Amino acid sequence: MTQATLNALTTRDKGSRNSRRLRAAGSIPGVVYGEGVAPLVVSVDAKEFRTSVSGDQGLNSLITLTADGKSYTVLARELQRHKVRGTVAHIDFQVVDPNKPVIATVPVHMIGDAVEVRHADWEIDQQLFSVELKARPADVPTHVDADISHLTPGATLHVGDLALPAGVEAAGDKNAAVVSTRQGRVALVGGGQDAAAAAPDAAAAPAATPSA
Questions:
Q1: Which residues of the chain have pLDDT under 70?
Q2: What's the predicted TM-score (pTM) here?
Q3: Whether residue 144 is found in the same domain as residue 187
Q4: Separation CA 80–CA 8 (nearest Å)
């Protein structure tokens, strides 16, 4: 797994006014934190940061952050964005141990063709588009596939049903629904027509004669 390098400056003043000045100059204010590390206020170049997380791992990319002559292995955690422009306004860098598991959020990609569901005129409804996983930083996958090929009408694919790589486990509720099925409009209309067609027959049927 390729590890990006990012240079950080620690000689910046605190305060919203100074943060705005940094952003205007093309930098992003942030903080470095983690077990055994005193919180460190930093700023990084915006372009360099985008490059460091532009790989397949995205925000789960391991980064070697250098500041004040020291190196930290970090993950870019909470990102605050500008409400209008959507640009990154602040970054929390978490110091991690490459040999210890971390919690990471990865996207869920739906794959396969639910033939039985489709033939029954039912529909597929994706409930979760990302899932939390627990793994060593280098083992965190870029995404998780949700294979719907085996789904049948009325069935649900849960987090615990996902096929995960070796060394990776679900960190959240394994009973959470990832993909569910529901009746489509065609099936609902068809069911309503069948019920309506059966109603006149029921009405036309002679009443049962009470027994003596």
A1: 1-2, 11-19, 24, 186-212
A2: 0.76
A3: yes
A4: 18
pLDDT tens for residues 151-197?
A: 999 999 999 999 999 999 999 899 999 999 999 876 556 554 443 34
What is the pairing mode between strands 27-34 and 88-95?
parallel
Q: Are residues 165 and 186 in the same domain?
A: yes
Helices (H) and strands (E) counted in the chain, each on its own, are 4, 13
Query: What is the bridge-based pairing of β-strands 102-111 and 144-147?
Result: parallel
Token pair recorded at residue 96: 């991690």
Alpha-carbon distance of 137 to 96, in angstroms, equals 8
DSSP state of 55: S
- The DSSP code sequence of 35-86 is TTEEEEEEEEEHHHHHHHT-STTGGG--EEEEETTEEEEEEEEEEEE-TTT-
Tokens of 180: 């569910």
Three-class DSSP category at 183: strand
Two tokens at 173?
């509720």
Q: How many CB atoms within 10 Å of residue 164?
A: 17
Domain termination residue (choose one: 64, 96, 128) = 96
Please tell me the total count of domains within the chain: 2
Q: Is the domain of 59 the same as that of 129?
A: no
Structural domain that includes position 110: 104-197
Last residue of a domain, one of 96, 120, 152: 96
